# Entry
Amino acid sequence: MYEFTYTTQAPRVVFGAGSMKLIQQEVEKLGARRALILCTPEQKAQAELVASLLGPSSAGVFDGAQMHVPVENARRARKHAKECGADCAVAIGGGSTIGLGKAIALESSLPIIAIPTTYAGSEMTPIYGITEGGLKKTGRDARVIPKTVLYDPELSMGLPVALSIVSGLNAIAHAAEGLYAKDGNPVITLMAEEGIRSLAKGLRAVKMNAKDKVARSECLYGAWLSGMVLGNVGMALHHKLCHTLGGTFSLPHAETHAIVLPHALAYNSSVVGDAMERIARALNVESAPAGLYDLNEELGVPQGLREIGLSEGDLDYACEVALSNPYWNPRPIEAGPLRALLQRAWEGHRPTA
Ligand code: NAD
# Structure
């Protein structure tokens, strides 16, 4: 029997190859006249292309976006936006650049247009993160949601295959946990299943040919759907574990997600049969946890936490940290089974659930 509450606050989405070229009219649609373009130093060329498309509506490029949004960068960017008279910002890049845009929006009324070039999905969420004194603080605030998102698959053609794969698998993790979220609903469920299907299909094709436009489009479509899931419902065991592992042991964000997901799903599988069926159907496999493990293998990502810098001696502490901070999960989090999950994820065995 259905029972749910569904509210959504989503940006306007323009999707299609070459959609970046619509930037000028999208800025005008917001009633803005001067757009500051945000990027990382590595994506300055793409940002300058946006600036040239904007012509006199460009307030210049700020190429100071950095991983985890250091608070000093956010302050510098806000100050720069004020000084150059910007009345909107265009963030072109991945989660780090869009995160900088969000940090600006949080403390000003500057509307943000996002042009995502990875599959992280941040552009669809009200979640922000700012790092101060080595600590990343995250929060949810509707003010940080971009007003408009231009999804242009041509811009991800240059995203290295390895980065494309881990970024896409990270997006699959958002969709997978959205399928058993406490505050889930049937619309999000549809998006999540379709997101997993399209990402798995697209990533396999990108691995064969990074310049496959159709595959890039499929991945970006999946990233949009998975971002919607992340923005609208709460996450559970898997995300909590990845934050613990990433935050405590500085493990790489996206790889950690890829490795842990099959094991976190195996932990929950006995109590969320419907979600497991949907994931398995999206992957066209018998078992969701094993199917995701096999997808990782096919895509060539590391299979064990030991391969990405976690030592076996850290597992007890990781378990302790994860347990010390209670959170909702469809199956109660218990020390013994959680420690066993971590051991399996560390060793990199194929889940049996
Ligand atoms: P990223 O933004 O950190 O980018 C990684 C590198 O790849 C950067 O140097 C970037 O310039 C480069 N790059 C990006 N797109 C490229 C392209 N098309 N071609 C060539 N190089 C390209 O990576 P990410 O995985 O998108 O984002 C990770 C960050 O986003 C993490 O800090 C994560 O916590 C955050 N995130 C936030 C949310 C949210 O809802 N707030 C959601 C997902 C991820």
